Amino acid sequence: QHMACLLDTAEKQCSSDGSGLEVLSWTQAESVWMCCCPLPYQSCDWSGLVQPCYAAVVEHLGPLTGGGSTQSELLVALQRARADLRRTGGEPCQVLAEELPHSRCGFEASPQVDRPLERSDLMCEMLAWQMEELGDGDSTEFKRIDCPYTEDSRARDGEARKEQVMELDAIVRLAGYMPLTDISVEATLDEELAGLSNALLSGNVEGAWQVYSQGARSAEAPALQSLLLPPRHSNGIFWQYELYHNTSSYADAFVTAAINRSGIFTGLEGEEHAEVVSQVALLLGVWMLVIDRLEAAVDSCLHDGFWHAAPLWDGAWAFIVGADAGQEGIDGGRSLWEFSNVQCRYFGTCTPQLGERSSVNWDLLDLFRQGMAHLRRGDHHCFEALCVLDSIIAKMMVPLIQSLLREVQLRGEIEGAAPRPASALTGWVSASSALPLLARCNSSVAEAVARHLEFNWGSRPLREVQELVTAVQSTYSCLGVLCGDVGGLLGVDGQYLPGMKPCDDDPEDTIVYQTVVQRFGGVAVALAVFSVVLCLSRATASSAACIGAPSQSLMTLREVPSRLTRTLWYWGRRPVTLQCSESSATRVIGV
Questions:
Q1: Neighbouring residues of 26: CB distance < 8 A, sequence distance ≥ 6
Q2: How far apart are CA 235 and CA 287, in angstroms?
Q3: How would DSSP label each residue in 552-576?
Q4: DSSP assignment letter at 495
Q5: Cis omega before residue 101 (within 30°)?
Q6: How far is CA 241 from its chain centroid?
Q7: Residue 62 and residue 366: Cα distance in Å, rounded?
Q8: If 496 and its partner were Cys, which of 259, 454, 501, 513 is the partner (CB 3.0–4.6 Å)?
Q9: How far is CA 506 from CA 178, 304, 503, 510, in A?
C-alpha cells in the first residue's frame, strides 16, 4: 500500500501544472507523508506513522523540503523511497516492479507516451492500488497498458480517504532535519539554558542553581546537571577532556563554580555572570553530550538495532539546534547551532543564501542525514555511521577554533590593564573547549594558547599573535578541520585583520578521519592477534595482507564476520582504529 501510494504521488507530479512540490508540505491534503499512515491518505498523527515507510520517505525526500528542488528530482526521490520499501519488504515484495530505470513523466519520454508515468509496469501497479483502495480508475486506463482489470476489486468507500490532512503532534522538522523519533524533550534544552541565564540576569543565583540541578522543563525532561555528568558511552575524545581537566566531571564542576562565582569566576555579576555560565554549560557540557549521544547511537545500531539507535541520533541533533531555531534553523536561540552562526560572521564563513548562517551548520545537517541513512542499513553500515560521526566532530570543532582565534586576537588588541572579567572568561571557556583536542595533536601549541589566554594579561605583540595563529592552523589536519571551514578573522572594513588570514587547504590532501580508542589494552592486543590468525586462516589471505603495517592488522569490514565485529566492539568498547577515507568505499578495521 505505501509503495503504491508513493507512485500515486509521482503520478500527481506528472499531472500537475505547477511544480507539484506542495506534496512535501505537512499541512497539504494527501501529502506524501500521509502515504505512511497505516491506511495511506487516511489521516493519522505523526506518532502513528508506519516507521519503515516514514524512515524511507525522510531519507529520500527530506532533503528536498528545504526548497529549490525540481519536479524531476522529486519524481526520482519518490521512486527511490519506493525501492527502499521494496527492499525492506523482503521476498514478498520482489514480485513488484524494480526500481530501475527511473521513470520519467510520459510527456518527457522519447517518444512521448500518453500516460502520466513513462513506465507501464509502475502505472499498472499504481492503477491497481487506486482502484482497490480509493475506488478510482476505469477499464480503459487498464487496457491501454495491458494491465489486468477486475471490477469486483474496486473499493466501495475510497472517497472517505481522500483530501485528508495530517494531525501534527510533534516536531517534524528542526533546522532542516527531519527526525524519525520524538525529539520534543531534547529540543527544549535551549529553554533550560535560557532559564539559567535569565535567573542570573536578575541576580537570582539560588534560582539559577535550582534550574541547573532540578530542571525547569517538563517532568520527563532530565535536569541539565544530570546531562552534564560523565557520559554513558565514554569515548576517546571524552578521555582527552577528562585527562586535560583532571576530572571526569569537569563540565559539572565548571558550571557549578561559575554559578556560585567561586575560583576563577569570582566577581561576576548580572549580564557577564549569565553569559559566562551559559557559555560554560554549552561549550564544556552540551558539546560533549552531543558526542555521547552519537556514540550511543552507533553502539545501539550494532547491538540493538536501528529503532534503538534512531532516538539517540535524533536527540543529538536536537541538543545541537534547540527548539528556538525553528523549522529552517534561522530563528536564533541559545544553542551550539546559534554559537556557530555567531562565529561565522567574524570569519566570513556564513552562507548568504541561508540568511547569513554558518556554512558548517549546513554541513552538519548533511552529515546527520548521511549518518541516519547508514544506521538504517545496520550491520557494517553502523561503522560507516561511526565515520560520519568523526566528520561531525571535526565540524563541531570549527566554531570552537574560531572563537579561540578571536580571543587570541583580542589579547593582542587590548591595551594596558587586564581585560574585563567576562571578556577574559569567555575566551577561557572557548579555549577550554578546544584545548584538549589541540593538546592531543600538539601539546606545545595547546600550552602556548593557554598561556596567551591567561587572566590579567595585557596587550600581546602582534608578532606573537601571528605566530600563535599559525601554530593553531598547523593542527587543522590532525583535527580533521579544513582551513576553508575556519576562515580568517575580519575587521569592520571586511578585510582580514593582520595575522588573521585563513590558511590554504592542500588540494592534494585527502583527509582521513580516524578514530583511535585505546581501551582494555590487554584485550585489544589479544583481539589483534586473534584477528590476524583468523585472517591467515582464510585460504585467499596472505601474511602481508593480514599483518600490514606494524601498528595495524587489517581486515575489510565486509570480510569480518558479524559476530567477530560485535565481539571486538563489546569486549574492548571499540578497542580499534577505524579509518574512514572519503576517497574509498572500503572501510578498514584494525587494532
A1: 33, 166, 168, 172, 173
A2: 13
A3: --EEEGGGS-HHHHHHHHHHHTS-S
A4: S
A5: yes
A6: 22
A7: 11
A8: 501
A9: 35, 41, 10, 9
Q: How confident is the model at residue 422 (pLDDT cuts 50, 70, 90)?
A: low
Helices (H), 118-269: 120-129, 139-144, 189-201, 205-214, 224-227, 236-245, 250-260
Q: Helix or strand or coil: residue 368? A: helix
Task: For the chain, give the longest Cα–Cα distance.
Answer: 91
Where is 344: in which H helix or E strand? helix 336-347
- The 10s digit of each residue's pLDDT in 468-495 is 999 999 999 999 999 999 999 999 999 9
3-state secondary structure 239-291: HHHHHHHCCCCHHHHHHHHHHHCCHHHCCCCHHHHHHHHHHHHHHHHHHHHHH
- Which 3 state secondary structure label does DSSP give 72? helix
**Using an 8 Å Cβ cutoff, are 516 and 236 in contact?**
yes
Conformation bin of residue 39: beta by default, left when phi > 0, alpha when psi is -120 to 50: beta
Q: Say what the pTM is.
A: 0.83
Q: 3-state DSSP: the chain helix, strand, coil percent, rounded to 5?
A: 60, 5, 35
Q: Mind listing the pLDDT tens digit for each residue in 490-544?
A: 999 999 998 899 999 876 443 333 332 222 333 333 343 344 344 444 434 333 3
Query: What's the start-to-end Cα distance of the chain, in Å?
Result: 47
Host H or E run for residue 300: helix 287-303
CA distances from 87 to 3, 52, 90, 374, 565 (A): 11, 11, 6, 15, 24
Candidates 23, 60, 31; CA nearest to 372 is 60
Report d(CA 409, CA 226) in Å as an integer. 35
